[in-house]
Amino acid sequence: MAQLGVAGVVATAAPLVHAVGAEDAPAADVPRAEEVPGAVPVTLRVNGIEQRLMLEPRVTLLDALRENLQMFGTKKGCDHGQCGACTVHVNGRRVNSCLSFAVMHQMDEITTIEGLEKDGVLHPVQQGFLDHDGFQCGYCTPGQIMSGAALMKEPIGPSDDEVRAAMSGNICRCGAYSNIVAAVQQARGWPSGRPRSAPSKAG
User: How far apart are CA 124 and CA 184, in angstroms?
Assistant: First the structure.
């Protein structure tokens, strides 16, 4: 058991050490095209910051964020657009970043989970997840939050069922759906448990 414990610490510590090293390293110039076979220049605006990269044209937006920009909040789940763990905002709309090539998003405004809070203030959906315990293992949480945040600007009805339908592309393998819906409904200003449609006021 002691050996397993040590192995677990080493396994989890390695990415942390790598991340710290990446942050401490001085910013490198954009690599020359010949250093990446077939690479083309790509400029992404991520969380308000312009990022200049040399990428092979088939690199997905998800891999560019995680592997090139070390933004690990956006998760790689199914890599087939079926689980929603990789959801980000592109020009205010939610996108499965695993299904989109980075070269398609030159100068688009991209927002990841790292850029959702502003000036130290959590987004209402982030706060809702805390208030309603909308996560268990946490792996799907960034995608769920990003989807819920975009949903607040979409023309959907007030009911829980309509929220569930709008977020059906985001899978929670732990089954925390009721809490997730409650979190999103709090952010929207609707109490969870609202019926599908409000009674008509027509006389």
Answer: 8
Q: What angle do CA 44, 187, 137 make, to 5 degrees?
A: 70
CATH class of this structure's domain 124-188 = mainly alpha
Question: How far is Cα 64 from Cα 31, in angstroms, rounded to an integer?
Answer: 14
Instruction: Please state at what angle helix 177-188 crosses helix 141-151, rounded to 10 degrees.
Output: 30
User: What's the rounded Cα separation, in Å, for the pair 72 and 81?
Assistant: 18
**Answer CATH for 29-115 from 3.60.130.10, 1.10.720.60, 3.10.20.30, 3.40.190.10:** 3.10.20.30
Could you read off the pLDDT of 51-71 as tens digits, one per residue? 999 999 999 999 999 999 999
Q: What is the DSSP letter of 84?
A: -
List, edge to edge, every strand of the sheet that includes 87-90: 49-55, 40-46, 109-111, 87-90, 93-96
Q: How confident is the model over 111-143, as pLDDT tens digits? A: 999 999 998 999 999 999 999 999 889 999 999
